[in-house]
């Protein structure tokens, strides 16, 4: 039987007196591509941060590749890529300097992939030599994605990775995710509010509500199983769209 890559057990987190994660149990299996959904403020970022050990939970346990997330070995850290919701790039560096810095931290770094992405995603020489603070929000988001993909992570965690990207940028990112990442068997967890994008890549979805995973399953099965009865009894039920399902589960 497959062992989960990520395991969260009874995780609790509150800010002040407001509970955000409320005894949350969750497992991520190898090769899963999970879209994490929830209303604004439901706690998606908090969950992803606790999952990665970037934010200390108030209770419960989190393991990644069987290791306690608060004591991850360097070897395990090197297997994880993360794109935070808010840019954490070193804004005073140029993109090239920042990427060189991260390259030095990782035992494995895919130069060919990084260079190909930089070229495909519009980082010409002038842009590569400009301080990151002078790049647009979308360019910074692309750079954060390139940085996370550099070490060929086996587990990729992305917090609203496409929120600042225009439709062309989103399409390019999704193509990279599908062709370059998912096909290699990478495990991916990503939060998004753009349901149409999620429908193109996520095989599984998980809904966060009231501090727990309220529903999780394969996207097509969830949609197939969820129907709205229209009209009089006996009238054929209509399958729900993902948007309908989102509203139904998270309201
Ligand atoms: N550092 C903090 N201090 C106090 N409250 C916080 C802090 N970080 C988050 N919160 C609160 O915790 C709740 C969950 O926030 P979080 O950012 O995890 O939600 P989210 O689901 O990612 O939201 P969104 O979809 O809007 O990005 C919110 O009510 C937020 O205001």
Explain the overall architecture:
- The structure is a single chain.
- The protein has helices at 44-51, 74-77, 95-105, 111-120, 125-128, 137-149, 167-181, 195-201, 219-225, 242-250; strands at residues 6-15, 18-28, 33-37, 59-64, 67-68, 80-83, 155-159, 187-191, 204-209, 212-218, 227-229, 237-239.
- With 251 residues, it is of the alpha/beta class.
- The chain has a domain at 1-79 and 154-162 and 187-250: Rossmann fold (3-Layer(aba) Sandwich).
- α4 runs antiparallel to α6.
- It is globular and about 65 Å long.
- Adenosine-5'-triphosphate (ATP) is lined by residues 15, 20, 38, 40-46.
- It comes from Massilia litorea.
Question: What layout of secondary structure does this protein have?
Answer:
Elements: E1 6-15, E2 18-28, E3 33-37, H1 44-51, E4 59-64, E5 67-68, H2 74-77, E6 80-83, H3 95-105, H4 111-120, H5 125-128, H6 137-149, E7 155-159, H7 167-181, E8 187-191, H8 195-201, E9 204-209, E10 212-218, H9 219-225, E11 227-229, E12 237-239, H10 242-250
Parallel strand pairs: 3-8, 3-9, 6-7, 7-8
Antiparallel strand pairs: 1-2, 1-4, 4-5, 9-10, 11-12
Helix pairs in contact: 4-6
Residues 15, 20, 38, 40-46 line the site of adenosine-5'-triphosphate.
Domain ABC transporter: 6-235
Keywords: ATP-binding, Cell membrane, Membrane, Nucleotide-binding, Transport
Protein name: ABC transporter ATP-binding protein
């Amino acid at each position: 039987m497959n062992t989960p890559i990520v395991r969260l057990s009874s995780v609790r987190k509150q800010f002040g007196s407001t509970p955000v994660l409320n005894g949350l149990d969750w497992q991520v299996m190898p090769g899963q591509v999970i879209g994490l959904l929830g209303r604004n403020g439901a706690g998606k970022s908090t969950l992803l941060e606790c999952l990665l050990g970037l934010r200390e939970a108030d209770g419960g346990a989190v393991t990644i590749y069987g290791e306690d997330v608060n004591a991850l070995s360097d070897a395990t850290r090197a297997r994880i890529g993360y794109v935070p919701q808010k840019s954490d790039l070193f804004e005073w560096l140029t993109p090239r300097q920042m990427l060189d810095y991260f390259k030095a931290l990782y035992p494995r770094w895919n130069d060919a992939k990084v260079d190909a992405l930089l070229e495909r995603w519009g980082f010409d020489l002038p842009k590569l030599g400009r301080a990151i603070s002078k790049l647009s929000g979308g360019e910074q988001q692309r750079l954060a994605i390139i940085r996370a993909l550099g070490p060929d992570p086996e587990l990729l965690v992305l917090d609203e990775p496409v929120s600042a990207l225009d439709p062309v940028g989103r399409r390019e990112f999704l193509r990279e995710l599908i062709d370059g990442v998912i096909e290699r068997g990478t495990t991916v967890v990503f939060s998004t509010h753009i349901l149409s994008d999620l429908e193109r890549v996520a095989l599984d979805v998980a809904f966060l509500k009231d501090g727990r995973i309220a529903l999780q399953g394969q996207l097509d099965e969830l949609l197939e199983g969820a129907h709205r009865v229209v009209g009089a009894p006996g009238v054929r039920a209509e399958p729900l769209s993902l948007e309908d399902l989102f509203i139904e589960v998270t309201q």
